[in-house]
């Protein structure tokens, strides 16, 4: 692929995966660039003149966002729009990443792109407003909603493996369902989509679903860890931010476009554990 790709948030989990997979065409990291600073975003994008900008930069601390609402909105909503506007000015395609937490989790079937969002947390609200403001710019944008990401960086898989080495028994929430998604698979979808003109909102998670408890069990099964895992309810594990009970999404539009290259989550997890966790 021979396109000039610029990545916002290149040192985050997804950003690192993009850098790794786009080696060769990628040299357009934007170190030190704060997406909330519109003049700098506009100048840097004009200077580099990329064909595609991928925004993985976000305020991702779901708990802390409850106390830092302004900062969460500044980064996830205003920052996203800043990048979208700067892309439109230079005619670059814009790939923006959003989340399953824009849904309230009360639907009894997987969420499709056609379902109405209703976020429960500040993080979810700020990401939803990011989507709306990006759409309001009216540029050539792809908004990809993903879920339960793991890759290079801090994530649930690494936390579970660390805890399994430190303890004999773990308690994991068993009444919240979603879909673990490997950053590697998400980048496959980004790469496919950005070569098209099919702009719009897409669900982009690995296939299938599980609870956090089932996710943890699968991690230990695949790594041969013998730690005991106890299921607990969300009520027994109170958090500041309310999370959706079931935010499983179907990649309906990717399927309709013949672009759903996502693997079942168990297969992606096995690949990650065998080849990427050291
Ligand atoms: N992680 C998940 O489970 C999950 C699930 C669904 C959707 N998503 C979405 O997927 C995307 C990627 O997530 P991720 O897990 O890769 O997140 P991450 O590891 O937390 O990386 C986010 C990156 O954004 C950077 N950043 C924060 N504020 C910034 C600003 N004002 N200007 C420029 N960069 C800034 C952070 O830099 P610092 O570290 O220096 O602050 C960090 O490098 C995000 O849009 C997130 O909302 C994530």
Automatic annotation (TrEMBL):
GO MF terms held by the record: dTDP-4-dehydrorhamnose reductase activity
Pfam families membership: RmlD_sub_bind
Alphabetical keyword list: NADP, Oxidoreductase
One GO term (biological process): dTDP-rhamnose biosynthetic process
Entries under Gene3D superfamilies matching the protein: NAD(P)-binding Rossmann-like Domain, UDP-galactose 4-epimerase, domain 1
Domain RmlD-like substrate binding: 4-275
Pathway, per record: Carbohydrate biosynthesis; dTDP-L-rhamnose biosynthesis
GO cellular component terms, semicolon-separated: cytosol
Cited function: Catalyzes the reduction of dTDP-6-deoxy-L-lyxo-4-hexulose to yield dTDP-L-rhamnose.
Family assignment from sequence similarity: Belongs to the dTDP-4-dehydrorhamnose reductase family.
Record protein name field: dTDP-4-dehydrorhamnose reductase
Protein's organism: Acididesulfobacillus acetoxydans
